[in-house]
Amino acid sequence: MTSGCSDRTAGAPVRIRALRGRRRLLRLGVAGVAGLAVALGASNAWVGLASRGGVHRPEDVPHRPVAIVLGAGVYPDGRPQPLLAARLDVAADLLRRGRVDRLIVSGDGRHDHHDEPGAMRRYLLAHGVPADRITEDPEGRDTWASCVRAVQVYGVREATLVSQTYHLPRALALARAAGLDAVGVGDETMASAAPTVWAEGVARERLAALKAAFDALTRRDPVLGTPHAQPRRS
User: pTM to 2 decimals?
Assistant: First the structure.
């Protein structure tokens, strides 16, 4: 009897330490979730403030010398996926309206089977855009890179960004942080054409704001100096 009591008494400190460890982990987890929530909230608030007044419709967007079409998915056969094709349709329309003078198609051009700028160029040519109005940026691997390279590689100071409307606030916030006098025109046709994809994009933007704020705060350097990173005109 005495021995059994001793065993239980000896095991008590172990159980107490285990309980304290679990509580500590729980507190750390709660603090981590709370910190992430605060960071996400602050990042999205910054995106909203930094992009204020920048989104326009094609008929009322102020003139800019350049429209920057931000890259998206490309099929293995080199055709732009629907989201990207819709962006390119908006850009071609802006050019026809005289709202912009030329286009920079910016995306990831590292692989032949996923050459976003090349696919964008071919699509625009097939839809009547003159070759001398198109410049490819093959190192626009994300929105921040496209904006920084527009300024530092292509010498752009004023631009219209073209993407889906849910992406434009973040794109405008990054563009302005990079030194661009930027406005934006967005595609909305995909909201009805592909509602599930659209909803996923809207949700993803809430999380992407965190990376955007990090890029703007740290002034992350994109690729600027590779041999094919210089302006490549069609």
Answer: 0.80
The half-sphere exposure of 54 on its side-chain side, counting CA atoms within 13 A, is: 30
Give Cα 173 to chain centroid, integer Å: 10
Eight-class DSSP state of 189: T
Distance CA 203, CA 196 (A): 11
**Segment 147-204, tens digit of pLDDT:** 999 999 999 999 999 999 999 999 999 999 999 999 999 999 998 888 998 998 888 8
Q: Where are the alpha helices (DSSP H) in 51-115?
A: 82-97
Alpha helices (runs of H) in the chain, residue ranges in sequence order: 2-50, 82-97, 116-126, 143-152, 168-177, 190-193, 195-218
Phi-psi region of 219 (alpha: psi -120 to 50; beta: other; left: phi over 0): left
The contacts of residue 88 (CB under 8 Å, 6+ apart) are 69, 80, 105, 120, 123, 124, 127
CB atoms within 10 A of CB 30: 10
